Every structure is written in C-alpha cells, then in structure tokens.
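debug: dumping io for the single-chain case to check the tokenizer round-trip. Nothing else runs in this session.
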Amino acid sequence: MIKYQTPEPAATAPLFRIGLVLGGLTGALGVALSALAAHVDTTGLLATAAQMLMYHAPAFLALAAVAQVRRVPLLPLALGLIAIGLLLFCGDLASRALRDARLFPMAAPTGGMMLIVGWAAAAISALLVRPRSGQ
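debug: decoded output
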C-alpha cells in the first residue's frame, strides 16, 4: 500500500490579507460611489472616483495573490502607495462633489502621482520576485 504525504499548507502572508482587505474595501466603496453618482451627483466627479476604485479592486486582489505565492520586496510599498493614492484622489473628487470643497489643495494630483509611482513600483518589483521560503 502506498502512503501519500500531504504537504503542509503554506503560511498566509500578511500582505495577502492586506491586499484582500484593500480589494474588498475598494470594491465596496466603488459600488457605493457608483450608486451615489447615479442618484445624487451632478458633477460627474463621483462617477470618476467610483471608476478608479472599481479598476483598482481586482488589481489589489491580484497583487495579494502574488504576495501569497512569491516574495516581492517592493510589493508592500506599491500597495501602500496605491492605497493612499486612491484615498487622496478619490477622496478629493468625492469631497468636491458632495461638499463642494477640496480635501486640501493639490490632494487629487498628489493622489494621482502616488498611484503612478505605486504602479511603477509594482512593475519594477517584477525584477525582484523570489520564491517564498520553503518552495
């Protein structure tokens, strides 16, 4: 009789959980802002913010999956920059649409630049991908 050993399950990477939370929150906020855009907003700014959130939700999930199966040194930086960039960019658009006031001067452009740098960090991290320990 042949005995099969089942491999031990891999430990859950903390960045995996963070990416899942960011993806879920971003998706939920995107849906909520889409509803507000359809029923409340006359500026079109909420629709733009909702689209940005919805575009990034699956990207967070994909980056989380990468974090679980590979060690990617720049991924925490990339996720952080993208998350803060979305918060600033979409937060400023929502604030202008709902309160007719900016979060602070240059909030949306600062958030947009953080998004660009975050995605550049994700791209550069492709050069640094390593196997997870034990693989």
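debug: round-trip ok. The two ends are 28 Å apart (CA to CA).
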